[in-house]
């Protein structure tokens, strides 16, 4: 299964990134560039930006498909000081996003996922700039994604429903008394009518 939602916080993210590089299967790109900058590829864990751009990544399985497409998005004049940014796109890229703590009362899921060949083929006529999905080795994409997900699961010290909980996240959950899972994460207070 390509998708994995898991709980991670601070040091857990560093451990996940280390696993990404240790596996030796991926080229690592930021999902969205900084404003008025090109997309960056990160070749070591030390290069991964500590800001928002290092928390939303696109992983290219080496040898499994063409280089990512850097799609330029131009901003409307006068909306901000920036004029453009780039987004990293490709049919067989694996998304790796960090959720982490959101304020003192919520821990959001971190997440991995990727397209299937069937979904990519269905969308190909609409997104022609991404090329032919047949150019991707889908079995290699799925295999690498599964290996990453297994590495993340092995780091877990607990599980909430089907979501692995990594060590630092477990500490955050205990300290903030996060007991209610809804929306995109775990919360300290319930929604109306919810029981723990």
TrEMBL record:
Organism: Micromonospora echinofusca
Protein name, UniProt field: Uncharacterized protein
